[in-house]
Design a protein that fits this description.
This protein is an alpha/beta fold. The protein is 44% helix and 14% strand. α3 packs parallel to α8 (230-253). It starts with a strand and ends in a 12-residue tail after the last helix.
Length: 385
């Protein structure tokens, strides 16, 4: 069970073996800790020391967000005791053949899912742009098969993503100013929802990786870096189109989200005060005219792009632009529909049975573990049908 608490001013308190969500003297929910997989707290939600202790005792993945959905941090649950498995993960970082085989499968799976969705858009919307871009992406697949280095695979992934988002707007009945993928900051409603849902997906994949006792840091497609959960970002790639992008189309095309569900962040001008000698007082602006820069990173998971130059260009192109934010009621609707999506069942080919997307995350993480252990030779990404 995954629990979201975004009622501002709420308190999570312990009562015996249970947790209560209270506001004032009113009790909103009773939570059975042994059934909780993830507890997500948004904004001003108080967690009492007794409640915190109970969550840590039961190893509940407890995550903290800002009210607008920006990831802040989480309680660290115990690391896996399987030292040899973790050692194997890190040793494989020097195995180029292993890395190339894994990255080739991930990139091929992601681009194939993009092609499938663009072709579906072309058929339903009667537009030529999606099918044209789908053919361009398809032309990359044979090249991926011949690549013998990870850097080239990152380049093909980046090119495919650019083509994909170049035609993404045609899947929307109302593009709502969407022209391309923009993350920092998301300057239109569609990008705001994409970034928020990618953040939710990121944390769900993180939990799946910890469930199968893998270390979330060492990986290949996303360059390992200080504090970066590279494996999380690698394994979420195949789920982006399948879970987040299709859900985003549904939210907007079914009018679950509309234009008036969003607000534009208003810039707060820095108050200029001058001393009697007309010399500005630096203590009034301790960050040197950079006080409002943090607002440009709303709805953002840890860096997800594999190309640092692309990341920098994206930020420079949108410097000075203000983020679009969801209103509280719309924010709740996004959460509710994300959970509906994650509990939807589909035919999971590797096991030849129906499972939910929540279970599929764990299954794919488990498949990667088997790959690391040498029990299987190829990683099989999920395909959008």
């Amino acid at each position: 069970m995954n629990i979201y608490i975004n009622t501002q001013g709420a308190r999570v308190v312990r009562e015996g073996r249970h947790l209560l969500v209270k506001k004032g003297e009113d009790t909103y929910h009773t939570l059975f800790v042994e059934k909780i997989k993830q507890l997500m707290l948004f904004g001003h939600v108080e967690l009492t020391p007794a409640a915190r202790s109970l969550l840590l005792y039961h190893n509940v993945d407890t995550i903290f967000f800002r009210k607008d959905g920006r990831y802040l941090g989480r309680f660290a649950t115990p690391d896996s005791k399987n030292v040899m498995l973790r050692k194997r993960q890190f040793c494989l970082l020097d195995d180029n053949d292993f890395g190339v085989r894994f990255c080739r499968a991930v990139v091929h799976g992601k681009l194939s899912n993009m092609i499938t969705l663009l072709m579906r858009i072309s058929r339903t919307k009667k537009r030529k742009e999606p099918v044209h871009n789908a053919k361009e992406i398809r032309s990359l697949l044979p090249k991926i098969a011949d690549v013998d280095n990870i850097a080239s695979l990152r380049g093909y992934e980046g090119k495919g993503s650019a083509l994909y988002f170049g035609a993404f707007q045609w899947g929307l009945l109302d593009p709502m100013q969407f022209a391309r993928r923009v993350r920092r900051p998301p300057t239109d409603p569609v990008n705001a929802v994409l970034s928020l849902l990618y953040t939710f997906l990121f944390n769900r994949v993180y939990a799946a990786i910890r469930t199968v006792n893998l270390d979330p840091h060492p990986a290949f497609l996303h360059v390992p870096d200080y504090g970066r959960f590279s494996l999380v970002m690698d394994l979420m790639e195949e789920f982006r189109v399948i879970v987040v992008d299709t859900l985003t189309f549904s939210l907007f095309n079914l009018k679950i989200l509309q234009q008036d569900d969003f607000i534009l962040e208003v810039a707060k001008p820095i108050k200029k005060e001058v001393k009697e000698n007309n010399v500005p007082d630096v203590t009034l602006d301790p960050y040197g005219l950079m006080t409002n820069l943090d607002s440009g990173e709303l709805f953002d998971a840890p860096p997800q792009r594999m190309d640092d130059n692309f990341e920098q260009a994206d930020m420079e192109d949108n410097r000075g632009k203000l983020p679009v934010k969801l209103k509280p009621e719309a924010f709740t609707r996004v959460i509710e529909n994300f959970e509906r999506k994650m509990t939807t069942e589909f035919h999971y080919l590797p096991a030849n049975r129906k499972i939910s997307y929540n279970d599929a995350l764990v299954a794919q993480a488990g498949m990667y573990r088997k790959l690391v252990e040498g029990a299987i030779q190829e990683y099989q990404p999920l395909s959008l049908k």
